[in-house]
Amino acid sequence: MEADYFVKLIDAAEQRRSEEIERVEMGGSEEEPSHKKTSGAKEWEKLQTSSNEEYLMRTVLPVLYQGMKVVDLERPEAPLEYLALYLLKHQDQVKLPQKP
Hints:
Blueprint: H1 2-25, H2 34-37, H3 40-49, H4 52-59, H5 61-74, H6 79-89
Helix pairs in contact: 1-4, 5-6
């Protein structure tokens, strides 16, 4: 049952990432996403009080899912170390609000 939960979270993060890529490829929209309209302190508070699913989808899963796909394709000798390094290298792909 837990596996289904994580699969749903990963699928939702992948869908969100795909939509963002498509939006960027189409030239983007002039309007900023609603989560960027609020001030930094309010956005930090919102992230900290969000549901577990929303928090993970915004902070970890976009890069984690990509890293897991790379690990699956590459099949490195030390997969956990490879994944950890991948996450550190690509952590700038997730934009988080600054802590007040």
